Amino acid sequence: MNIDTIVDKEYLDKSFRDIVNAPISALRGVSAKDAKALQQAFGVTTVRELSNLNFVKWASALAILADEEGMSGEERAKEELLDDAVDPA
Q: What are phi and psi of 47, to 5 degrees?
C-alpha cells in the first residue's frame, strides 16, 4: 500500500499518528463537504474515529468473510457446467 494513494499531499510527510488524528478530509478523495456529512451522520471528525466506527468494522469484516467463503452449491454447479463446456473430456 502506497501512502500517497491514501492521503492528500499535505499529509504525505506526516507520521501515521498525525494522520489518524487528522480530519477525515485528509483522506484522498474525501472533500470537506464529505467530511461534514460523515460528521453529521456518524459524529466522527478524525481518521481514527472513522476507522473505529462499528459500521466500517462490520462492513470490512463482512467483505473479508465473503471473500473467504466457499462457493454455494448453485455457484459450484454453474462452474462445473462451464468447465464441462470448455473441456468435455
A: -60, -40
